[in-house]
Amino acid sequence: MTTTPTVPLVIAGRVAGRASVDWPTVGVAVLVYSAFLLVTWNYAWLPWWIVLPLGAMTVALHGSLQHEATHGYPTKWEWVNSLIVGWPLWLWLAYFEYRNRHRLHHIDLHLTDPRIDPESNYLTPEMLAKMWPAHRVLRRAVGTLGGRMLIGPAYFAFNTWRNAFKELRAGEPDAIKAWGWHAVGVAVVLYWVMGVCGIPFWAYVLFFAYPGTSLTVLRSFAEHWAVEDPEQRTVICEAGWFWSALFLNNNLHKAHHDAPGDPWHKRPAKYRMERERLLSLNGGYLIPGYGVQFAKYFFRAKEPIQHPFIHGTITNG
Which has more pLDDT, 17 or 61? Predict the structure, then answer.
């Protein structure tokens, strides 16, 4: 379902007493769109080895900006935030769809539960049994960091579109709104990219959308793991300045789940003040940077894809 879940307002980020505009987040939006316009406009004379990293980082940073918007930034007006961040630079995911599902993900009691948490990396035994053998092989490949970054964007896009097709065919109003606006946004982005800048569709996917998504799913690879205590399910990744900036400090993920209404730029200082408390809460689930994740998990899974203690499927009946 794409219906907006009923969650506490702090989960969505609409915190009483907040300033009307968060200017650092506005600055990120200006940076993202300026970079996007400059790189795409100058695509014809830039070498591919310049376009690829710039395109990937721009799209990934835009994804981080969209994440902040799901929590009520950069303004207190949701329609303004949607207008600012809702342009689908990575093409495959509708912003309204992502916003609704991400807020559901922030009900920490249900973190990692594949029946409820739409961002869970796990499956129930029932879900796994229903998969075709080739699908199970593919899903296990996506469980490695290398597979997640190389195959994951196509895999996640296909699943998203398949679910969207089912919802649209059923006539669900929220799905019609989300994907209708998405179609308009994609048309505008591709008009600029292909019609104005002369970038072939395949080149935009190869140099911008796909690698930008790959960087984003790197961040989410180890954000959560399945343990009994919900407080201990969320990681802290003490990354360097580059990854922290690209992910808008969402690598300090336990700090984010602890106070989802806080803006990204206040998270590091708060984390330094509360580091011991947060590590105590999450049971010491700490990863010292993304280099460690590459070294340990690029060719092997971090953990099994079957959820260790949740079984069965919740029905809507």
Answer: 61
Signed CA dihedral, 238, 278, 100, 35: sign only: negative
Q: What is the DSSP string of 114-170?
A: TTT-TT---B-HHHHHHS-HHHHHHHHHHTBHHHHHHTHHHHHHHHHHHHHHHHHHT
**What are φ and ψ of residue 227, in 5° steps?**
-135, 165
Dist. CA 17–CA 317, nearest whole Å: 40
How many Cβ atoms from other residues are within 10 Å of residue 258's Cβ?
20
Mean pLDDT value across residues 14-21: 72
Q: How many residues does the chain have?
A: 317
C-alpha closest to that of 76 among 19, 131, 150, 123: 19
Q: Domains of the chain: which residue ranges?
A: 9-220
Residues 231 and 279: their CA atoms lie apart, in Å, by 10
Contact in structure between 267 and 252 (CB atoms under 8 Å): yes
Q: What is the pTM of this model?
A: 0.93
207 Cβ contact list (under 8 Å, min separation 6): 48, 51, 52, 55, 56
pLDDT tens track for 130-151: 999 999 999 999 999 999 999 9
